[in-house]
Amino acid sequence: MSPVLEVHELTAGYGSLTVLREVGFTVGEGEIVVILGANGAGKTTTLRALSGLIPAAGSVALHGEELQGRRADARARLGLGHAPEGRGTFGDLTVDENLRMGGLRLPRREVPAALDHAYGLFPQLAPLRDRAAGRLSGGEQQMLTVARALMTRPRLLLLDEPSMGLAPQVTAELFAELGRINAESRTAMLLVEQNAAVALTIAHRGHVLESGRIVLTGTGPELAGNASVRRAYLGV
């Protein structure tokens, strides 16, 4: 499985505070990789560093193209999509307008097909296309955030805590959709998540992050069956 993303010795933080310490991992073609960890472990910082939203040392390559030294918008043009923590939809804009915001970099003639593709991925959003995003349920807003990030068909989609604030049933439905999208489109995904139980149901591989370092790596089933992961993240 050829790597979509290769990360070596990634170190990042905020001011004088170092949060990530020489983290390294890969994401293969068509693979879902999850990063698990408690609050403050460095999960969101990892995605922000990969996206170019904060300065970082080390190497980050997307399909062999080095991203370090490139701005966030340049990384997006190379095929890095990001669905941030907290959804971040534009509440006063309609679902359709939110999706169009995700496709601003597309040539105008490609936007209708991209919209059709987004609604095909999340058919629940199609009847809501003229509704303001602020009037959607939490689950619908999260689907909109993911659909917007997929408007440009990125090579790699970064997902930051997509289950945050969602009811268990809604979380299960969202992750089922993510698994289906991955299976049908082979979109590679890097997912950071506190809800290990649901994340490991769709992950091919995963890493446990503690205090800015990767301390455990395995396949989804291996991590789900690991005693320390079960105690710390699955509550069993």
From TrEMBL:
Q: Report the leader peptide range.
A: none
Instruction: Supply one GO molecular-function term.
Output: branched-chain amino acid transmembrane transporter activity
Q: Which domain of life is it from?
A: Bacteria
Against InterPro entries, the record matches this protein to:
AAA+_ATPase, ABC_transporter-like_ATP-bd, ABC_transporter-like_CS, BCAA_Transport_ATP-bd_LivF, P-loop_NTPase
Alphabetical GO biological process terms? L-amino acid transport
The record, for SMART domains, names: AAA (SM00382)
Q: Which residues cross the membrane?
A: none
Q: Provide the alphabetized UniProt keywords.
A: Amino-acid transport, ATP-binding, Nucleotide-binding, Transport
Which residue ranges does the record assign to the ABC transporter domain? 5-236
Family, as annotated: Belongs to the ABC transporter superfamily.
Question: What PANTHER family does the entry give?
Answer: HIGH-AFFINITY BRANCHED-CHAIN AMINO ACID TRANSPORT ATP-BINDING PROTEIN LIVF
Q: Spell out the protein name for this chain.
A: ABC transporter ATP-binding protein
Q: Which organism is it from?
A: Actinomadura craniellae
Q: What is the lineage of its organism?
A: Bacteria, Bacillati, Actinomycetota, Actinomycetes, Streptosporangiales
